[in-house]
Amino acid sequence: MQFGIFSVGDVTTDPTTGRTPSEGERIAAMVRIALKAEEVGLDVFATGEHHNPPFVPSSPTTMLGYIAARTERLVLSTATTLITTNDPVKIAEDYAMLQHLAGGRVDLMMGRGNTGPVYPWFGQDIRQGVPLAVENYHLLHRLWREDVVNWEGKFRTPLQGFTSTPRPLDGVPPFVWHGSIRSPEIAEQAAYYGDGFFHNNIFWPAEHTKRMIDLYRRRYEHYGHGRADQAIVGLGGQVFMRRNSQDAVREFRPYFDNAPVYGHGPSLEDFTRETPLTVGSPQQVIERTLRFREDFGDYQRQLFLMDHAGLPLKTVLEQLDLLGEEVVPVLRREFAANRPAGVPDAPTHASLLAAEESGAVPATAKEEK
């Protein structure tokens, strides 16, 4: 079980001070947060990809490459790599390069994003969002696994005798999660390739999340990658903690009430009841997160959103201390307890390489359905 954090990289005014950080300050804060994640013993740092204000992480490989040079153990991931508007050849080469620089500490979460205008900015049509995701990933999958690719599709020029460089480290491509909140087609795609499925359920009730994960698990087994309970699942969640739960609610409320993604909608109490948002003590966060296993089964990765809504860096770092010192150690023990035999760990470069060398890697589809 991997525990970590993800950042969407929003630049949001702190409602308690009226101060808005500069883009440079926000970028520097994301780096500091990643370094803190390793310091407190977390496993993963993931960054989103956005190309519009008020977000800053337009170039995940640049940020993750910089963080890779300053860390030793942390797995570096994307919270979204836009498979629809990035060229799959560029993704293949950029992330293989990052994989080499980071010594294998890299994986990706493919997604379509949630910003409609990004499609025409990169010459695409939002009405083709799902077909783009399917075709582009099919090509990316081949580029990482075939030394010479001949390919023709609908959305880009054909390739003849093409080799992407550099080749994946040790001949093992980065592990891929397919991130989706609402699209069963993406759960199906993840299952078809035997990849991971990440449901970033931060705005969704458990019933919806369960339907999506159950679909993915059933289809993973259908395609012959293993039992349904062996499918690779990740979840999101957002928390705000103080040692006293009343202090946490009082401090977070103005951020919730004013943040663009929360404010002027359901109350804080309604939102925490209907979604994974947990505002309270470390023990409340532990109890809430452990219920995810009851709802969704054993899973492999839990990422928390902690640096959003205008929270100052000092506060986020305090949150990470609580997460690393009081929450994650308990979660590790509890999730490990009673974990059924045969449920796999989260994939890493080392485990994928070992499986490749032993011949234990299940056959994955290379052709389109």
Written overview of the protein:
This protein is of the alpha/beta class. It has 12 helices and 13 strands. It has helices at 23-39, 60-70, 88-101, 118-121, 129-145, 184-193, 206-222, 245-258, 268-274, 282-296, 313-336, 349-358; strands at residues 2-7, 44-47, 75-78, 81-82, 107-111, 149-151, 159-162, 175-179, 196-199, 233-235, 239-241, 278-280, 301-305. It has a 9-stranded parallel sheet with strand order 3-2-1-13-10-9-8-5-4, with helices on one face. Strand 9 (196-199), helix 7 and strand 10 (233-235) form a beta-alpha-beta unit. Helix 2 (60-70) runs parallel beside helix 3 (88-101) and helix 6 packs parallel to helix 7. It is globular and about 60 Å long. Residues 363-369 have low confidence and may be disordered.
Features:
369 residues; globular
